[in-house]
Amino acid sequence: MAKRLLTAAIGVPVGILIIWLSSLTPHVMAGATVILSVIAVFEVISAAKYSKYKSLTALCLIFSGVLPLFFCYDILRTYAVPLAFLFLVLMFALTLTRHKEIKFDELGFMVMFTILIPMAIATLAFFDFQWPKHGTFLVVYTLVTAWIADGGAYFAGTFFGKHKLSPEISPKKTWEGFFGGMVTTILFAVGLGYGYELLDKLTTGDNHFTVNIWLLVIMAFVSTFLGLLGDLIASLIKRQCGVKDFGNILPGHGGIMDRFDSVLLVAPFIYLMCKFIFPITETIIM
């Protein structure tokens, strides 16, 4: 617990600084997603013990660092599909040179997570690029709905947990913890929504927009399930790979992937909701 608190004491201010700088220029968040993507992809590949294939691993890390930029910037977005095609061609070509060692299930694992992780994490940068005025709020809301659910589930499960949720995959998770995390997430979502409106009024002297509180609650409700799904998938991978954590870059928490596993599905969901289902305007956010 001491390590977790110390890491949080250092990590939270760093995260706040990055989010604040991103409100001034979205390029900061784009750079942060590149770093997070590369580290997370390396952690997953290493956990599966596929980093022994150095040429494939190097190509995966290069691609995971470049892909977020291709999705963030309009000038590069047109070439995202050709980039992915080139990546696949090179991965197949390298596999053929070592066909006696590399199996196709290993290749598929590396390709899938090298594409999935950067796309999901890059969503955090999309918010600042797509909606400069509300991007900071959306990033905070996304991380809160993913992480508060995890924290609320941990404490609720510790004190009230009796019924196991998925004992074969994650023995410590309970249904009581899950519902405790859901309630905590919804309460924080409501608080963030009203707090964002209040902050606007305090800083500008007037309300320039309104926040759809009910939609925040609905998205927090769905995000709780998606965060749990991402968490369980990560736990299943670790169990099958025989590792406790994906890394140790965050003492007490594990690796970047351990911290962002619940974000991988929550972030794209919130982006799609804001982009296609309830488009953000100047007067109403969600």
List how many beta strands DSSP finds: 4
**Global shape:** globular
**What oligomeric arrangement do these chains adopt?**
single chain
- Rg, nearest Å: 20 Å
How many distinct domains? 2
β-strand amount: under 5%
- Roughly how much helix do the residues carry, as a percent range? over 70%
Q: What's the overall average pLDDT, rounded?
A: 86
Low-confidence stretches: none
Q: From the helix content, strand content and strand pairing, which structural class follows?
A: mainly alpha
Kindly report how far apart the N and C termini lie: 37 Å
**Separate helix tally:** 11
Q: If strands are numbered along the chain, what order do they take across the biggest sheet?
A: 1-2
Major sheet size, sense and barrel closure: 2 strands, antiparallel
Element string (H = helix, E = strand): HHHHHHHEEHEHHHE
Short key terms for the protein model shown above:
286 residues, 2 domains, 4 strands, globular, two-stranded parallel ribbon, single chain, two-stranded antiparallel ribbon, 11 helices, mainly alpha
Quick summary of this structure?
The protein is mainly alpha-helical. The chain is built from eleven helices and four strands; from the N terminus they run αααααααββαβαααβ. The model has no long low-confidence stretch (mean pLDDT 86).
